[in-house]
Design goal:
alpha+beta; Arc Repressor Mutant, subunit A; 5-stranded mixed beta sheet
Amino acid sequence: MLSNSIINLLSNHRDPNDQNRPSTLNKTQIIRLLRESISPDRELSNLQEEICQVLQELEAQGEILASKGNYYCIAPPTLLANSREDVIGVKFRGDRAYLSPLHELLKTNQNRDEVKIRPKIRTFDRIQTRLDPIGIRLLTAEEDLIYRLPSPQKPPKYVLRCPTTLPDSSDGELFSYEPLPQTLQENRWQPVIGSQVLTLDDSSLLKLSKDRRYQNDRYFYWKGNKVYELDRDVAVLAMFDKDREKDSPLRVSWHTSEGKLDLGDIYLPLAYKSYLWQLSGKAEQNSRIRSVPAASRSLIEPAFQKLGCLLV
């Protein structure tokens, strides 16, 4: 599987001056190294697109970290438990260099590459005491993920340091985010036509869309008659902040009894996507429809409440 190949590649890529620290690879390097390592029988025509999709999925799952310039690094080693009372089965994610020592430390008697861990120690605090000295975090979904999810907010001052100019119309179509009651997120982006750009409200959130593909969009913030380009995640948090300002929460389909969460075309801040992906699996071959096991269903509503969405 490409996902395992990428995880192992990034786990094995260490800082030459400190083997305890993983190092980064950019997307081009990852694609080249994977091309060299895969079977010659593998169809290569769609490989680059597949790798890009898997990188996004792994980032959402918390397995890898991404930074500007399409650089990627394996995430710190982490064990995730549903709760402090439920440590019978915990899941490992992140730096695989720690996986074999973890099995040895917790005396699991499992294969050393198994990520679903069944520790012999059955209390949260005792496991945490064992893991702290070797730098592996033990987190619970409720205590350490919900409360650390970022709140919707306007772009903070530290990202509004370098004004820029809006690209001209040849670079794409310009939209302004205007939350309207009971509308889909996609329909809240309203086109900015011609001279309308001169009459934008202060704190307008703008999107330049070239081909209607979300990952290729660029985001801008209009503040004090100056324009600032935003990272995607900063822009998405600002979208939800505007929803809250206008009292126009997005409606999300959630069937508690079935554990079925339908995200439709809603784009979430990365931390929220990562949180939800860790608690669920895809349903019906559609990654936007999530199947949430009964043990995790109580953790869904608090996350969406913090984001300001309305579960229906």
